[in-house]
Automatic annotation (TrEMBL):
This is 8-oxoguanine deaminase. The keyword RNA-binding does not apply. GO terms for molecular function: 8-oxoguanine deaminase activity. It comes from the Bacteria. It is an enzyme of class 3 (hydrolase). Residues 61-425 form the Amidohydrolase-related domain. Its EC number is 3.5.4.32. Keywords: Hydrolase.
């Protein structure tokens, strides 16, 4: 790394979220190119060459960048609707609108979703996109292009649905794909866009939507496709009591057993929500190392329930955090999920012992990297890992009287992001994006939201 351009960050508190939860009250981080070269207590080493920039980070906490493990970007342009519905009623209310999305709408919605996350400390994002109306354009390409332009590391979970209203599902018939069509389009997306390298900026996962919107054949064949291509698998699982009832009525077993019967448990799989899990379900996830994307705000918004995150962690289940779609989490930020994961889980059986501040931070960083299969590359601050990190400003009115910086970050108000780096490149400065025009994105998302509402109303 001697010839690489260096950035030196000094005089900051550091929470590395490494295997020992190493922290420094005042320390330094040295970035060389797109990697973390060194970090530790006190000032940076003397005599460093090719130092392009020195940052005095007094009053800041440096952490790994936040990692989002579940989202639906397109929902940015349908926020604030069906606000008093449970999941199934919410889906019934919104599918007729979602079924009218097209490429310009999806591009604007992806920009809005990514911008909100990036300016709030997310350095690795993902999108589970599963609505592909006929003739809607290159939706996957639009999403991936938006992430590339924003400068965030990104996983596209290429979703699919083949169970429409005529088959007992929820989406309109014209908004789903055929089994063969979904598999072919998913394979093409993987082959065009997936990068398996250490410092990959774009990866693709195979992601049929949910047990109640896809056929058993699509689940089973999708799992086989993912493993043939060497990519990860993602879907929704055990989100509501209605889903559990649906699985028992249609398949004669609960969601976890059904997933296992179709090849959907394994260390290459992660599922969103997993709210209604019994001891046997959690044991199966732990045994198979199946990951979970915990989405506390969305689960509360849709009255789905409280996921048993403390029990999952105790059993060894990999758990990360997810924003979920912004039609069920209008804030669109992952930082708020650190706080909500801690507070909501304390309403469960474990009460005040459910989660602490450092466990919440781990969920949002290293836990997310585990779930996305990228823990060797990111999720903690360690020499040799990718230079994905955030400087949180904690010396303002909102946080200055909280002595412990990790407690301030998790328990306190949303902390300002002074700087966010992805792959060694700064993408946020003083809370504003450096890679996109936030005001232009706001105008575009408003216009596309109004256009979608007009088209849906006319239909």
């Amino acid at each position: 790394m001697a010839a690489e351009r260096r950035i030196v960050i000094e005089n900051c508190a550091i929470a590395t979220v490494d295997g020992h939860d190493t922290e420094y009250a005042s320390g330094h981080v040295v970035l060389a190119g797109n990697r973390i070269e060194s970090l530790g207590a006190g000032a940076a080493p003397e005599g460093l060459e090719n130092v392009a920039r020195r940052i005095d980070a007094s009053g800041h906490l440096v952490t790994p960048g936040l990692i989002n493990t579940h989202h639906h970007f397109y929902q940015w342009i349908t926020r604030g609707l069906a606000t008093d519905h449970n999941l199934f009623n919410w889906l019934v209310a919104l599918y007729p609108t979602w079924a009218r999305i097209d490429e310009p709408m999806v591009r604007a919605a992806a920009q809005g979703s990514l911008a909100m996350m990036a300016r709030g400390g997310v350095t690795t994002a993902m999108d589970h996109h599963y609505v592909f109306p006929r003739g809607s354009g290159d939706l996957s390409g639009a999403i991936i292009g938006a992430a590339r332009d924003m400068g965030v590391r990104f996983t596209l979970a290429r979703g699919s649905m083949d169970r429409s209203e005529k088959d007992g599902g929820l989406p309109p018939d014209f908004a789903v794909e055929t089994l063969d069509g979904a598999l072919a389009a998913t394979e093409e997306t993987v082959r065009r866009h997936h990068d398996s390298s250490f410092d990959a900026m774009t990866q693709v996962a195979v992601a049929p939507c949910s047990p109640f919107s896809v056929s058993t054949e699509l689940l089973r064949d999708g799992a086989q496709l993912a493993r043939r291509l060497g990519v990860r698998l993602h879907t929704h699982g055990s989100e509501t009591v209605e889903e559990e009832k649906f699985c028992h009525e249609l398949f004669g077993m609960g969601p976890t057993d059904y997933f296992e019967s179709t090849g959907w448990l394994g260390e290459d799989v992660w599922m969103a929500h997993c709210v209604h899990m019994n001891d046997s379900d959690i044991a199966a996830f732990a045994r198979s190392r199946t990951g979970v994307a915990h989405c506390p705000s969305s689960n509360a918004r849709l009255a789905a329930g409280i996921a048993r995150v403390p029990d999952m962690l105790a059993a060894g289940v990999p758990v990360g955090l997810g924003v979920d779609g912004t039609a069920s989490n209008e804030s669109g930020e992952l930082h708020t999920e650190l706080r909500n994961a801690l507070l909501i889980n304390r309403l469960g059986a474990h009460r005040e012992a459910a989660l602490n501040a450092r466990q919440a931070l781990r969920l949002g960083t290293y836990g997310g990297a585990q779930v996305l299969g990228r823990a060797a590359e990111t999720g903690s601050l360690e020499p040799g890992k990718l230079a994905d990190l955030v400087l949180w400003k904690l010396d303002t009115l909102a946080h200055a009287s909280i002595a412990d910086p990790v407690t301030a970050l998790v328990f306190g108000a949303a902390a300002p992001v002074t700087a966010s780096f992805v792959d060694g490149r700064q993408i946020v400065e003083d809370g504003r994006l450096l890679t996109a025009d936030e005001d232009a994105i706001a105008r575009a998302t408003r216009d596309e939201a109004r256009r979608l509402a007009r088209i849906a109303a006319e239909a």
